[in-house]
Amino acid sequence: IWPRPWQQPHPPVWVSVNSVGSVRPVAERGYTLGTVMTGYGAKNIFDEYRRVWRASGHAEPVPLERLVYCCFMACGNDEAEGLRRGNDVMAYLRTNAIIAEQFRTPPGYIPAQMLASQFKRTGRAGFSELGLFDKDGNRISGFVDATVADTMRGGLLFAGTPDQVYRQIVEFYETVGGFGALMMMAQAGTMSHRDT
Fold it and tell me: For a 10 Å CB count at each end of the chain, is N or C smaller?
C-alpha cells in the first residue's frame, strides 16, 4: 500500500462478510470478520473462519474478538412494546427492497457466483432475494416477506423485554459458537427519538 499507513503495524482491520465464500482471505490474514443480516447463517461463516484460521497455521483458537455479529434489536418496557419496536426496526428490510437494484447490489458486494445463482432461481438478484433460515437450516421466508416472528426465529432480530432479548442473544451466541462483539441496528425508517 502506498502511501504506507502512518500507524505501524497497521490499524485493526474489520471486514464485512456475508457468505462462506468470502471468509478465506479475512481469516488467513487474521482480520476481524463482521457479519450483518445473516441470522443463523453466521454459524457457517464463523465455522469457516475457524477452519481457515487453523489451516493457516494458528496453533491457538480464534480469539473471540475476531468474530462480530450485527443484528437488529428492539427492547421495550413490556413484550408488546419491544415487538412493536421490532416491527419498526424491520422496516429496513421492507424499504430496502424498493431501492433500485444497482444501488442495492453494487459490483463486488455479493459474490458473482451467488448473484448468478439467485438470478437463475428467481429472475432477480440482490438483497430482496436473500433468505432467512432457522437454526436448523430450514428456510423460513425471504427478507421482504418476513414477519417479526420470522426474523426472531431466524436470529436476525432480538426483540421483547430486556430479559427476553438477553435470553435470545445467549441462545444465538451458543448456537453459532460464540463471537466477541455484538453490534446492533435499533433504528430505522420513521422511528421516533423516544423509540430509539
Answer: N
User: The whole model's pTM is what?
Assistant: 0.83
How many angstroms separate the CA atoms of 87 and 81, rounded? 10
Cβ(50)–Cβ(177) below 8 Å: yes
Contacts of 163 (CB under 8 A, 6+ apart): none
Residue with cell 441470522: 39
Q: Which of 36, 114, 25, 106 is nearest to 71 (CA)?
A: 36
- The cell for 75 is 427492547
DSSP state of 1: -
> pLDDT tens for residues 89-102?
988 877 776 777 67
Distance, CA of 48 to CA of 25 (rounded, Å): 11
Strands (E), 10-138: 14-16, 32-36, 67-75, 131-133
Instruction: Write down the pLDDT at residue 95.
Output: 77
DSSP code of 19?
A: S
The three grid cell numbers given for residue 134, joined into one nine-digit string: 432457522
Tell me the average pLDDT across 115-128.
70
